[in-house]
């Protein structure tokens, strides 16, 4: 009732570069859909990350034309018919889009996300997955371990941070007590905000372990995030 509905659809699109392309589409329908646009995530083993982002952008463009009316079926039909064209244009458009996105970033600014995870049972696999998502979405920051505390601090384009959150909530990233793959059900968003001038920009995404709370605090202080630390981290120790 408060989060809406999330579902995945897989479609195979034929006759694209003489091969079938399996598109994995994830739609999150907010509570007030279709008056509000759905969040869309696109992935495919046959396409590059840039091409998937282009497909997503084109689907959102189409979605705006159907605002206030059910649209998912129309969007799927549209991409089945137009995927070949979208991919053909992708290479030419990508350099232009990169230039435009720089202008957009200057206007919208860089955003920051602080996530708390309750635990990681399959730690090695989980860490590798988080690193891949951060790389694919061009996000920088830290995956931080201190005792039982696990934090993910991300910086980047706001739309990419939103897509990271969708992946975090809907992908099978860990295993349950019986060893079966499971989704992350125990994560919480501590803070999502625009990066301010006093905040240091992370240049890379790193996985780090800290022996003491002081070490963890220094990481935040170095990045100009003292207030963020004092507001959200100490309460996790209680």
Automatic annotation (TrEMBL):
InterPro entries: RWD_dom (IPR006575), RWDD3 (IPR038840), UBQ-conjugating_enzyme/RWD (IPR016135). Residues 1-86 form the RWD domain. Coiled coil: none annotated. Gene3D superfamilies: Ubiquitin Conjugating Enzyme. Keywords: Cytoplasm, Nucleus. It is found in: Cytoplasm; Nucleus. It comes from the Eukaryota. One of its GO terms (biological process) is positive regulation of hypoxia-inducible factor-1alpha signaling pathway. GO terms for cellular component: cytoplasm; nucleus. This is RWD domain-containing protein 3. It comes from Baryphthengus martii (Rufous motmot).
């Amino acid at each position: 009732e408060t989060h809406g509905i999330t579902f995945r659809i897989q479609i195979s699109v034929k006759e694209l570069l003489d091969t079938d392309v399996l598109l994995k589409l994830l739609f999150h329908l907010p509570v007030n859909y279709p008056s509000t646009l759905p969040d869309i995530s696109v992935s495919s083993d046959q396409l590059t990350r840039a091409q998937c982002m282009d497909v997503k952008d084109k689907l959102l463009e189409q979605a705006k034309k159907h605002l206030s009316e059910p649209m998912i079926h129309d969007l799927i039909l549209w991409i089945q018919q137009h995927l070949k064209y979208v991919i053909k244009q992708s290479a030419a458009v990508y350099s232009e889009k990169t230039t435009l996105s720089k202008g957009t970033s200057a206007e919208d600014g860089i955003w920051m996300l602080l996530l708390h995870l309750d635990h990681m049972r399959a730690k090695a696999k989980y860490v590798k997955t988080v690193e891949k998502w951060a790389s694919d979405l061009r996000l920088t920051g830290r995956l931080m371990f201190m005792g039982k505390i696990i934090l993910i601090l991300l910086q980047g384009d706001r739309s990419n941070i939103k897509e990271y959150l969708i992946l975090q909530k809907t992908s099978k990233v860990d295993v349950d007590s019986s060893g079966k793959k499971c989704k992350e059900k125990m994560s919480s968003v501590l803070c999502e905000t625009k990066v301010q001038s006093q905040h240091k920009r992370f240049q890379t995404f790193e996985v780090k372990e800290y022996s003491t709370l002081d070490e963890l605090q220094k990481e935040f202080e170095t990045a100009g995030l003292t207030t963020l630390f004092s507001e959200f981290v100490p309460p996790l120790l209680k």
